[in-house]
Design goal:
Layout: E1 27-28, H1 41-48, H2 63-73, E2 80-83, H3 85-97, E3 104-105, H4 113-120, E4 125-126, E5 148-151, H5 163-171, E6 178-181, H6 195-198, E7 202-207, E8 220-223, H7 226-237, H8 246-257, H9 259-282, E9 285-286, E10 294-299, H10 304-313, E11 316-317, E12 319-320, E13 330-333, H11 337-351
Parallel strand pairs: 1-11, 3-4, 5-6, 6-7
Antiparallel strand pairs: 2-8, 7-8, 9-10, 10-13, 12-13
Bound molecules: 4'-deoxy-4'-aminopyridoxal-5'-phosphate (PMP).
4'-deoxy-4'-aminopyridoxal-5'-phosphate binds near residues 111, 181 and 207.
Length: about 350
């Protein structure tokens, strides 16, 4: 029998993050982390950190980090919001901006956290289908809605949408908040950040987890006009004033400042991605063109789940989603060239190519 208190529990089907295997000798290509370490300048920041500082609460405004991000991207500091990874930022956005009765819109194949937040906050939603090339169809977002969110490049497909199509969606959605999740934008796409100054209802969200090699630090940020950023901060202060810890703030500042290192790492990843794409073709895989740090690939004859399991037995982890429409695909994070070569060696055994 259900107890009275049990009836009042908020139940939600949780988001399932990719596996974080404990073994040391694993090739980990399953959660889109950067294979290169964070900037060595962050080590200096760590050394300079006064341990006694940890007695005190961090700066609730995260001003040092907000300022350095604003400077770097040519924005005002009142146009920048920071949070504990872009997951935190996007979750705050859902809570802050999606409070109408009309359904919000996001693609049927996309970052699976969106539907979890919608359920958690009891936001109705609809999921227009991607076309057969895994593209978002802008016309599907012309209908009435309570808000729009999509990643560009999309995940897990890695498919990039041209800015003209992004703007088309924005133009048709002037009465709701439109969020562009740019977790993977630094790997070859063009950011929609300029639309923030052109349209008052646009938010662009980015993260330090991928291109800045700091998934472990949990830093995400959003650009938007100052009204949107104020609304986000009001909700943040009503929820938890101190979202950003002292260490994350210190490391984060260094990561933004070291632009040369950032560009060098991205260059290497893009080069390895193009190499990997060729190797995958040779092995009988097809995939949408990737502008992210991963490739979404399907094999012409061997089922994805079988490949996934066989790779795992060899201590190589990629991501497999047992979901309709994408259950014959593997999402493969771009690692170092050496890691990718080990993957291709294993794949060639598994698919017999
Ligand atoms: N958006 C997308 C599309 C993602 O794939 C991820 C990574 N899981 C995130 C947001 C969240 O990343 P983080 O919280 O590490 O910034």
């Amino acid at each position: 029998m259900m107890r009275e208190w049990e009836k009042n529990i908020r139940t939600v089907e949780p988001y399932v993050p990719g596996e974080q295997p404990k073994a040391a000798n694993v090739i980990k290509l399953n959660t889109n982390e950067n294979p290169y370490p964070p900037t060595p300048k962050a080590v200096e920041a760590a050394k300079a950190l006064d341990f006694d500082r940890l007695r005190l609460y961090p700066d609730p405004e995260a001003a040092d980090l907000v300022n350095v991000i604003a400077d770097h991207y040519g924005m005002n500091c009142n146009q920048v919001f920071v949070g504990v990874g872009s997951d935190d930022v996007i979750s705050m956005c859902f809570m802050t901006f999606f409070n109408g009765n009309k359904p919000i819109l996001f693609p049927n194949i996309t970052y699976s956290f969106y539907s979890v937040w919608a359920d958690l906050y009891r936001i109705p939603y609809e999921t227009p289908a991607l076309n057969d090339k895994f593209e978002i169809v802008p016309e599907d977002y012309y209908k009435e809605n309570g808000g729009v969110i999509f990643p560009n490049p999309n995940a897990p497909t890695a498919k990039y949408m041209e800015l003209s199509a992004v703007e088309d969606i924005i133009k048709h959605n002037q009465d709701v908040v439109v969020i562009i999740d740019e977790a993977y934008i630094d790997f070859g796409g063009q950011s929609a950040i300029d639309f923030v100054n052109k349209y008052e209802n646009v938010l662009v969200v980015q993260t330090f987890s991928k291109s800045r090699s700091m998934a472990g630090m949990r830093i995400g940020y959003a650009f938007g006009n100052e009204k949107l950023i104020k609304a986000l901060n009001d909700v943040k202060y009503s929820f938890n004033s101190y979202t950003m810890n002292v260490t994350s703030l210190a490391y984060g500042v260094e990561a933004v400042k070291d632009d040369a290192y950032f560009k060098e790492c991205i260059g290497k990843i893009i080069e390895t991605r193009e190499y990997s794409a060729k190797r995958l073709t040779e092995l009988g895989f097809t995939y949408p063109e990737s502008k992210a740090n991963f490739i979404f690939a399907t094999h012409q004859s061997v089922p994805a789940e079988q490949i996934f399991t066989a790779l795992k037995e060899r201590n190589i982890y990629v991501r497999y989603f047992k979901k309709p429409l994408i259950d014959n695909y593997l999402r493969i994070t771009i690692g170092t060239k050496e890691q990718m070569d080990k993957l291709f060696e294993a794949l060639s055994e598994i698919v017999g190519a």
